[in-house]
Amino acid sequence: MIPFLDLKRVNAAHIDAIQAAIARVLDSGWYILGAEVTAFEQEFAQYCEVPHCISVANGLDALHLILRVYDIGEGDEVLVPSNTFIATWLAVSQCGAKPVPVEPDASTYNMDPARIAAALTPRTKAIIPVHLYGQPADMSPILDVARCHGLRVIEDAAQAHGARYAGRRTGGLGHAAAFSFYPGKNLGALGDGGAITTHDAVLADQLRTLRNYGSKRKYHHEVAGVNSRLDEIQAAVLRAKLPALDTENATRQHLAQRYLERLHDLPLGLPAIVAAAESVWHLMVVRSAQRERLQAAFDQAGIGHMVHYPVACHRQKAYADTVWPALPIAKQLAAEVLSLPMAPYMTLYEVDRVCDVIHETLN
Ligand SMILES: *Cc1c(COP(=O)(O)O)cnc(C)c1O
Predict the structure, then answer these.
(1) pTM of the model as a whole
(2) Of 29, 218, 233, 328, which residue is 20 to 30 A from 259 by alpha carbon distance?
């Protein structure tokens, strides 16, 4: 049995530190917006090499609150990848703006910068590149277009904690970035969690107020804010796990390298990594027109697998009331992508076993 991702095993590597962290919070008697949150925000900002981190309740809120502070709403358009987790689109829809899909490069899975110009209108306010599956989007040409047209660039870094582009960490590449600490992410909590990182001190201050009922001083409210806070227990757990993140990401890199070496001679689409990018391999995603045969072979062999994502956002029922352009690349990726087991506790032996089954199936 090779599970797709065993979260118990992921957290077992940190069990003593996690238990001590939870005990510390319990013992403190302070459970919301306290010392653990403050310390985590400082430590995660430092990790991302940015001056500001504002923790929030989840990754969707992180994206949504950034858009809100930028005053993006009704009548505005925001460019998003045509292939991403639905949260990227929902963050835009939630503030009343329109998500405008941009097709990806089919081999890197990330937004194709060459397609951005054609998607711009006078109503375009921002671009949300997603660092999908752990690989930073090709930010340099995206930032160039944005600069030319005065657009905000908001990174969706929910799958790319610790990744680098041109030597710099995700989270510091655009105007602001959204992270998720959903349990299955590279840095995962024991529940929901999220954060925003930015170089912009004014934005950071506005977000700190907005996430806490629009309040800087208890019972005094400057804006109609929301309740979107990371709790002290999750902050303490994340602090316990953060010091090992680079080591765990290095292990993922090592496993991914083995997958790529073992699979390159097969009729299988492998992820391409752009020269400037260092992926943190949140997911190992291959492409095959014979996906169902591979899925059946994995089931037979007791190997976990998933599809990220089986239905493109524009073809979801949730977005059926809008007429979308044909988005053939997103549609084809949804039909062909297959995620292989990837986790920081995995061994090369296990990767080889997965690759053996793929070889037996496709040969
Ligand atoms: C997980 C994820 C999110 C949302 O994070 P939540 O914490 O689940 O709200 C947003 N975007 C992408 C690409 C994600 O993978």
Answers:
(1) 0.98
(2) 328
